[in-house]
Amino acid sequence: MSRSAHPAGPRHADVLPEGHYSAPADDLNALDPKVWSHTVGRDADGVVTVGGLPVTQLAEEYGTPAYVLDEADFRDRARAWRTAFGADADVFYAGKAFLSRAVVRWLDEEGLNLDVCSGGELATALAAGMSAERIAFHGNNKSPEEIERAVRAGVGRIVLDSFQEIVRVAHIAQSLGKRQRVQIRITVGVEAHTHEFIATAHEDQKFGIPLAGGQAAEAVRRALQLDGLEVIGIHSHIGSQIFDMSGFEVAAHRVVGLLKDIRDEHGVELPEIDLGGGLGIAYTSDDDPREPHEIAKALTEIVTRECEAARLATPRISVEPGRAIVGPTAFTLYEVGTVKPLDGLRTYVSVDGGMSDNIRTALYDAEYSVALVSRTSDAEPMLVRVVGKHCESGDIVVKDAFLPGDLAPGDLIAVPATGAYCRSMASNYNHALRPPVVAVRDGAARVIVRRETEEDLLRLDVG
Ligand SMILES: *Cc1c(COP(=O)(O)O)cnc(C)c1O
After folding, report:
1. Residue pLDDT tens, the chain, 463 long
2. How many Cα atoms sit within 13 Å of 165 on the Cβ side?
3. Is the CB of 138 under 6 A from ligand 1?
4. Does 242 sit in the ligand 1 pocket, CB within 6 Å?
5. Burial group, residue 337, by CB count within 10 angstroms (0-12, 13-18, 19+)
């Protein structure tokens, strides 16, 4: 990622403050296909369209803020993952990134499986008719009720995350007269995040059972002895927003090492290995994510090579992309409320949403891009910070970006790549009404998650 603190050329502000921003794009009206969903473009009037519909029309019909999801793009990306991994592997969409019944149906139709990590996500998946065998149930503290529900429903796998859970799931399955297929989630001491990975990270986190000190091997030992469990494999998830495949390489090496130890000790070759999710997407033009076919090729080669070296049959691989499928498929559409230039600093652009619909900037210091979408403009770029309407100075949606200098209240702006971890992490802070998710496809729009109403809020407040 190359970042310059001082973009070249004359700009709206004479002095630009220090910050982590790139120089403005040559043409602020251009929409980088890396960060926008596939069907996004501009019509003859300069209005941005998606799925054949102008955003001005969407704003009028559905209001702002709104998440606008490009269904064709979602299906394309889901299919690309499915095709890339082929029949000998499984792709589980990580539902926590964004889940709704419509999304479950699209995944089902495109041949993907589904990860859930709560009773609510499981209920959504089942309500949409996803077959339970294609559901994996995750989480570091599944309640007994959640476990029982998952076992009764017949989920394809439960991913076990602790010694207590091994016993708990075995007990519940047995009491229901079932044998539950499980994977054991381990931490391999690799921590991957965006551009770096650490191969010797401390396993100092709440997820998984550490490989270090023989704990993972002990977990497998115990699980193999329990009648209620059928141990089908080992699970490893190393991080999020990862671009560099070398973290997966080290993780796969260590997971295969465990499989080999299990074979040597117990005489069983576990048939599956799950390498988790975490593949990165482009939030700004500086990010260069890999294509699913490159990722599939790399992961398959790594596992095959490691297994050959360990003289193990290559297990069935599964992966769990969430962000990489849904992230790029949606943008958040906002209306500009105020434009406040601060001399020598930047211009604060307030929109009608904020940290309640996108907490990632405040939570992770995430970077986003933004564009004026209701018209084009030839005005000089101005350095902006897009902020929300909440009572919190950290209520920032886009920290540093450029928008045309003639931006005015009433303009529509959009933040791309908000499909993942925005609606799913949305809150009612300041009693904000969580925005709808509007799916567009082939010139038609439909609401797949409706906007909250004040009645919704008051219904929970029982007085
Ligand atoms: C969060 C998570 C994922 C998905 O991560 P993305 O970054 O959205 O791809 C997959 N597997 C597990 C176990 C997770 O916790």
Report:
1. 334 444 443 444 445 676 667 788 889 999 999 999 999 999 999 999 999 999 999 999 999 999 999 999 999 999 999 999 999 999 999 999 999 999 999 999 999 999 999 999 999 999 999 999 999 999 999 999 999 999 999 999 999 999 999 999 999 999 999 999 999 999 999 888 776 777 776 678 899 999 999 999 999 999 999 999 999 999 999 999 999 899 999 999 999 999 999 999 999 999 999 999 999 999 999 999 999 999 999 999 999 999 999 999 999 999 999 999 999 999 999 999 999 999 989 999 999 999 999 999 999 999 999 999 999 999 999 999 999 999 999 999 999 999 999 999 999 999 999 999 999 999 999 999 999 999 999 999 999 999 999 999 999 999 9
2. 24
3. yes
4. no
5. middle
The atom number, within ligand 1, closest to the CA of 322 reads 8
**296 and 245 Cβ atoms separated by less than 8 Å:** no
CA–centroid distance, residue 395 to ligand 1 (Å): 25
Å from CA of 65 to ligand 1 middle: 26
- Give, rounded to a whole angstrom, the gap between the first and last alpha carbons of the chain: 52
Residue 94 near ligand 1, beta carbon < 6 Å: yes
User: What is the distance in A from the centroid of ligand 1 to the CA of 279?
Assistant: 9
Active site residue 422: no
Q: Is the CB of 276 under 6 A from ligand 1?
A: yes
Question: Residue 180 region, left (φ>0) first, then alpha (ψ -120 to 50), else beta?
Answer: beta
Determine which one of 117, 307, 391, 422 is catalytic.
391
- Ligand 1 atom 12, closest CA: 276
- With beta carbons less than 8 A apart as the criterion, state whether 208 and 186 touch: yes
Which domains are delineated in the chain? 41-70+328-460 (2.40.37.10), 138-321 (3.20.20.10)
CA of residue 94 to ligand 1 center, whole Å: 6
Ligand 1 atom nearest to 138, measured from its CA: 13
Q: Is the dihedral of CA 252, 254, 256, 258 positive or negative?
A: negative
pTM equals 0.94
